[in-house]
Amino acid sequence: MDRGCGTQSQVVMRKAFDKFNFTATFGESWDVGARTFVLKALFEARKYDIIHVHSLDKIVPPLKNLYGSKPVVLHYHGVGQTELWAKSEKRWRRADAILIFGSDQMKNAPPNVQVSETPVDTDIFHPMAEAPVPGTALYIKFGEDELAEKLAKDHGLNLTVHDSQANPIDHSKFPEYLSRFEYYIDVKRDWYNRNLRLDCLSKAGLEALSVGCKVVRPEGVIDVLPEKNRPEVVVKKLYDLYGSLLARK
Description:
Elements: H1 2-5, E1 12-14, H2 23-26, E2 28-30, H3 34-44, E3 51-54, H4 60-66, E4 72-76, H5 89-92, E5 97-100, E6 113-115, E7 133-140, H6 145-154, E8 158-162, H7 174-178, E9 181-185, H8 203-211, E10 214-217, E11 220-222, H9 231-248
Parallel strand pairs: 1-2, 3-4, 4-5, 5-6, 7-8, 7-9, 9-10
Antiparallel strand pairs: 10-11
């Protein structure tokens, strides 16, 4: 958005949750505990016209108490929220806009929730000069090992299984790693461990498409990054949302 729309943004995240070093590319991480992070974020928010909160809904009420005139966008991630709307109502009701990634996550959602598709930074994730090894496939462990192995066997692929929890790959090196493989096996269970299979393309799956991999799903093979996940498409919708919230204020 800063590159395409002329905005000036800052991204902050707790270092404890940034094991892939995302913020080396997009912002900064704070090596602090949960309470200190919230206090620092509340103080930092004074500098900005729009506050966009990812997942940490408990910070929304104090943000609105401190900065009532600033629009706060609350952005939920993952299938977990589909079962938590009632429990978290006191927090999300204070937000000026509520987003959730993917139309498949709209189960039980209040009527004012909007879908924001997962974007891929195509400046970073793009085809590399060196071609992938033919017939190879990558699967990142996420509770679907047997299904991944079956899909690889069904398609005659030589499968590499990577454990990102035990051996995290730095975000800046992930495009090059993905590009070694001709295919990416995109199956996973949700991160709340409720044994729910995710039916959408994962962020890693989208990034694999962006570097030129073919993505294997139970329903078939995908070989093109969907238009709705292109960064300029996602950013334009967010920018328009921000503009409408500021105009309302």
